[in-house]
Amino acid sequence: MREFTTDILVIGGGAAGLSAAAEAASAGAGVIIAESDLHLGGQLVKQTHKFFGSRDEYAGTRGYKIAGILMAELDEKGKNALSMTSTTVTGYYPEDGMFTAMRGEESYIGIRAQRCVVASGAQERIIPFVNNDIPGVYGAGAVQTLMNLYGVRPGNRALMIGAGNIGLIVSYQLMQAGVEVAAVAEAMPKVGGYWVHAAKIRRLGVPILLRHSIKEALGERAVEGAVIAELDDKFAPTGAEKRIECDIICLAVGLSPTTEILSHAGCRMSYVPQLCGFAPLRDRTMRTSNPSFWCAGDASGIEEASAAMIEGRIAGLCAARSLGFDADMEKLDEYWSRLDHLRAGEAGEKIRAGIAKVLRGRWED
Amino acid sequence: MDNDGTLFSSGVLTEGLIREMRPPESLWKDKKGGLAVVECPQRIPCDPCASNCPAGAIKPFADINDTPVIDHSRCTGCAICAAACPGLACFVIDLTFSHDKALFKLPYELLPVPSRGDAVDCLGRTGEVLASGRVEAVTEPKRDRTRVIHVSAPKDLADHIRAVRAVKRDV
Q1: What is the number of alpha carbons within 13 Å of residue B167 lying toward its C-beta?
Q2: For chain B, what are the domain ranges?
Q3: CB A243 within 8 A of CB A188
Q4: CA B21, CA B12: separation in Å to the nearest integer?
Q5: Phi, psi of A53 (to 5 degrees)
Q6: Segment B109-119, tens digit of pLDDT
Q7: What one-character-per-residue DSSP string does B73-117 give?
Q8: What span, in angstroms and rounded, lies between the C-alpha atoms of B41 and A153?
Q9: pLDDT tens per residue, range A162-197
Q10: Which of B64, B130, B159, B161 to mutate to test the interface with A (most CBs of A within 10 A)?
C-alpha cells in the first residue's frame, strides 16, 4: 500500500474543502485534499446560478466560476497542497494517525496526517412513495449534474418535489435546459427556499403547489407520470389527488450531512433537526471533540455554500495554527462576523437554532 | 383557495406589495430611461443590487439581510441591477417610451435569446401571457450571460409585465 504523509488531510474538495485547503496551505501547512469525485469543486461545478451573499462570498458570481476561483487560489499556494481525485477516505487508524483511502477502482493508499478537516458534504434524501425506484426518479442534485456538468437533458417534462432552494433553483435550470417543469410540489404551506427563486419560476408559468406531496410514480419500466396528494395541517392526505404528466420526477427533499468519518474518529455527534441530521459538536475554530479533527461545510450541518466556504476558511486556518504554522488568527473574528451576517436574516433562523445546539466553548483538555 | 397569502407563499407578489414597491408616480412618469422596480420582499443575505448600483440609488445595506431601499431620485434606469441581481428580482420600466407603450428592461437567462425586432410574449407574475411585446434591444451589462431584454409593451401593464418568453417562429 502506497503511503503519503502530510500535515493536514482535507476530506472533500468542494466549497468547504477547497477553502480549508487554500487557507491551510497559505499558512504554510502541507495539505492533501482527498476528493471522491473525478474532479475538484464539489457541488459548485454544476451551480450555474449566481450566488447570493456579499462580495466576500462571491455574490453575483456563478457557482462554477467560484470553483475556478478557489482552484486558482489553491494553485497559487499549491506548493504545499496536493489534490487527489477519485480518492475516497475509508478509514482512520488513530494509533498511528493513518487514514486509508481507495484510489480509483483498484488501489488502496495510506495517508498519514496530523490533522484532518472533514468537509465531506452531504447526501440527498429520498422519500418513500409507490414506485420510487423506477428509472426517471432522480435526486434533484443528480439532475443538476446530468444537465450542467455532462450536458445531458434528463427528460422532457419534470415534476419537482420540494420547494427549498435546491428544488427552486434546479427547476429554473431545468427550464434553462429546455425541459418543461410541470409543477413543484411542496408539503409545507410556504416555499422553503428564497422567495425570489420562487418568483422567478412562477413568472415563467410553473405552478408551485403548496401542501402537496407525491403519492405515486406511474409507469412500469420508467416514469410516465405521477400522482400527487394534497396534505392537511398535520401533513395527512386530504384525499384530493392530481395526476401530473411527466417523464422525470426530481426529489429535492433535503440533504443529510455525510459524517461517517467523524463518527469513526469518535467525534461527539448530536442529532440536530435544524442541521438536517447528526452533526459534530464543535468550538468556534470548527474543531470537533477529537482534537485532531475539524469540520466544515455541509458535513457539519446543512447550510448554504457561502457559509461552507467561510467555515472551511476557519477550519483550515485553525488546523494549521494548531500545528504551529503562522496563521493569522485575527482572521477568525472576521470570518465569524461574515458567518453571523449570513445567518442573521429570516432564512438563517433555523441555522442559528441548529448551531446553538452544537457550538461549544473551549474543549476541556 | 388561491388568496393573496397563499399566492405570496408560493412566490407571487400581492397587490399591496406591488403598490408599495412602485416608484413614486411623479418621478416615474416623465423619467427618460425609466426607474428601477425591485421585487425583493424577504430578508435574505444578499446585496449585489446595492453594491452594483453605479448611481447610489439602491442604498448601501447596513446589514447584508436588508431588503433594498431605493432613492428613485438618483436612479438613472441603467438596469445594471437587473443584470446583477442573482434572484432576477430587479426590473427597470420606462414610461416615456411612447404615448401608449412603456419600455420594460427585464433580466433574461433562457435560450433562444431574442433579437431586436422580434415579437415576444410578455408574462405576468404567474406566467400568464399579458401582451405581445417588441424587442427593442438586448444587452449583457455584466458580460456574464445574464441578458437584459428591452421590450416595448402596453404602458397600462407597467405594474404587471415581469418576464418575456421567446415566441417560436414558423419554420
Answers
A1: 15
A2: 24-166
A3: no
A4: 14
A5: 90, -160
A6: 999 999 999 99
A7: TT-----HHHHH-TT--EEEEETTSSSSEEEEEEEE--SSPP-TT
A8: 34
A9: 999 999 999 999 999 999 999 999 999 999 999 999
A10: B64
Compute the nearest-CA separation of B64 from chain A (Å): 6
Burial class (CB in 10 A: 0-12, 13-18, 19+), A190: middle
* Helix spans in chain A (H): 15-26, 63-76, 140-148, 165-176, 195-202, 260-264, 305-322, 330-342, 349-358
| Nearest alpha-carbon partner for A291 in A327, A265, A260 | A265
Contacts of A250 (CB under 8 A, 6+ apart): A138, A139, A140, A143, A158, A159, A160, A161, A167, A170, A174
pLDDT for the residue B1: 45
Q: Are B10 and A191 in contact (CB under 8 A)?
A: yes
In chain B, positions 39-78, which contact chain A (CB-CB < 8 Å)? 39-48, 51-52, 63-65
- In 3D space, the residue among A119, A54, A63 whose CA is nearest the CA of residue A338 turns out to be A54
Buried b (16+ CB within 10 A) or exposed e, A35-53: bbbeebbbbbbbbbbbbbb
Q: Which amino acid, one-letter code, is at A264?
A: H
- SS3 letters for B9-56? HCCCCCHHHHHHHCCCHHHHCCCCCCEEEECCCCCCCECHHHHHCCCC
ipTM: 0.96
Cα–Cα distance, B6 to A212 (Å, whole number)? 13
Nine cell digits for residue A24: 491551510
Q: Which chain B positions have a beta carbon within 8 Å of A191's beta carbon? A: 9-11
The answer to whether A280 touches A267, Cβ cutoff 8 Å, is yes
The per-residue pLDDT for range A62-82, each reduced to its tens digit, is 999 999 999 999 999 878 899
Domains along chain A with CATH numbers: 2-123+255-358 (3.50.50.60), 126-251 (3.50.50.60)
Give the C-alpha separation, B15 to A330, whole Å.
48
Which residues from B are below 8 Å from A306, CB to CB? 45
Q: Which three cell numbers stand for residue A321?
A: 495554527
Q: How far is A80 from chain B (nearest CA, A)?
A: 33
Gap from B94 CA to chain A (nearest CA, Å): 20
Closest CA to B144 of A27, A49, A261: A49
- Using CA atoms, how far apart are residues A94 and A115, in angstroms rounded to an integer? 11
Nearest to B45 among A195, A208, A341 (CB): A341
C-alpha cell at A325: 504554522
Pick the residue of A196, A197, A351 with the most B CBs within 10 A to test the interface with B by mutation: A196
Cβ pair B146:A345 closer than 8 A:
no
Annotate A172-216 with DSSP letters as a single string.
HHHHHTT-EEEEEEESSSS-SS-HHHHHHHHTTT--EEETEEEEE
